[in-house]
Prior knowledge:
Blueprint: H1 2-20, E1 29-33, H2 40-56, E2 60-64, H3 71-78, E3 86-91, H4 97-100, E4 110-120, E5 122-126, H5 134-143, E6 149-152, H6 158-170, E7 175-178, H7 182-190, E8 196-199, H8 205-209, E9 213-218, E10 243-251, H9 256-270, H10 273-282, E11 285-290, H11 291-312
Parallel strand pairs: 1-2, 1-3, 6-7, 6-8
Antiparallel strand pairs: 3-10, 4-10, 4-11, 5-8, 5-9
Helix pairs in contact: 2-9, 2-10
Amino acid sequence: MRIWKVLLVGLLVLLLSTVAFAKFPEKQITLIIQAAAGGASDGVSRTIAAEAQKYLGVPIVCINKVGASGAIAMDYVAKSKPDGYTIGYVPVELSMLKALGYANIDPRNYDLIMRANILPAAVTVRKDAPWKDIKEFVAYAKEHPYEVTIGTSGAGSIWHIAGAALGEKTGAKFTYVPFPGAAPSVASLMGGHIAAVTCSPGEVLSGVQGGKLRVLAVMGEHRSPLYPDVPTLKEMGIDVVVMAWGGFALPKGVPKDRYDIIAKAFKKAYDSESFKKYCESHGIEPGYLPGDEFMKFAISQMELYTDLINKLGLNKKK
């Protein structure tokens, strides 16, 4: 009887040791992207995923879940099992959804992994548009209220906020047309269905290079390296700066050992030559922050955009 007890205890210890030292990850990881394929969120996510999976030793499968300015995807990630096998790309809208009244989501619903990038809005029109610069564009919109249509990546998205901030600052009246991401809005502009878009510089690059689109101004603190001859709004006397950013997050409560493994792999992916080249070719500014600093930044952004959203009257609760 005593021998059986010894064997049973030994077996129990062996099982507990096996569980304690189980390898992570053991299966594929899912990366949820809140925007449509082809845009900056999608490109950054897939580039980072392709590199990170090399260090994790398992595939990272990217899935696009669009809608409600990213709320559908971010809510899905927040409610996923906190086991490290579901990761989400979180854009600036993470700090805006609560103020917009779209979802009860804010940065504290997640274990943030890292911030990866920042990028300004670019006001872009067709090459054959009658406006040669941003002043002509704004003047026309003021003289023809709501006639000028601006495509955005969803109602309440950062690119909607960009267009709305331009209108609020200048007094121009635009009509905003929501799309499930920047890429579809740019396609609509290329097809002549809308008058302009506000999105990242890289998301209109192929259209500009193809001679079909023209960037009138960028909404950053400095000019975009993709369009060094295009002025910022501030240079044109319009004091508006709207910048998007993005990073990666896990559901709240992922075990620290698993969090550390993922964070280390994603930092290596961020430091890769592949990600550097992607950013350079798409006019994206790398902007790394580790998880704890990313959390402080995202909360400060939430406070900033709550004030702006209320000022613009975009809170759907009102």
